Amino acid sequence: MAVTKIRKISSWTFLIVTIVSLAIFGLFFFGGVDDPYGADQFKNPTFTGEMLIWAYILLAICAVSMILFGITQFSNKFKTNPKGALASLAVLIVFAILLVVAYTIGDVTPLLGINADSQKFNVESWLKITDMWLYTMYIFLVLCILAIIWGSVKTILKK
């Protein structure tokens, strides 16, 4: 019964996230630009802010979930297998290292052609934080694709 409940919750969660993501991406790509007939060479899609906010929400949910599940797994394993618990703690440490490395390799070159309202975010700290999250998302995407491929290969090899 627990497996059925988990499957239903995860299926509904996936469906809701997919629908919201498709709606926001559709608004971003087909929602137009701020000044379509202006002389400015940089066109600003109308729903850029909403798309970025949604991407950051998804990233934050991933990061918080990973930390919470890691802590839960560590505490559950520590009772029965302390050495195995340290292995699960290593995942959190690797995640923290990933964030630090992604932050340090972030570029601090100020962006050109942005409006006056965005200039307050065109500083070194925000540029590095944005690069950190972008690099982390890229790495997570690659890891997810590799996990999908590995799962498929593993299933094929079992047969």
Protein architecture, described:
This protein is mostly helical. Helix content is 75%, strand content 0%. It has helices at residues 2-30, 48-80, 82-104, 124-158. Helix 1 runs antiparallel to helix 2, helix 2 runs antiparallel to helix 3 and helix 3 packs across helix 4 (124-158).
Number of strands: 0
| Rg calculated over all Cα atoms | 20 Å
Mean pLDDT value: 86
Query: Mind summarizing the main beta sheet?
Result: none
Euclidean distance between termini CA atoms: 28 Å
Number of helices: 4
The coarse overall form would be: extended
Order of helices and strands: HHHH
What helical percentage do the residues reach?
over 70%
Low-confidence stretches: none
Report the structural category.
mainly alpha
Strand content: under 5%
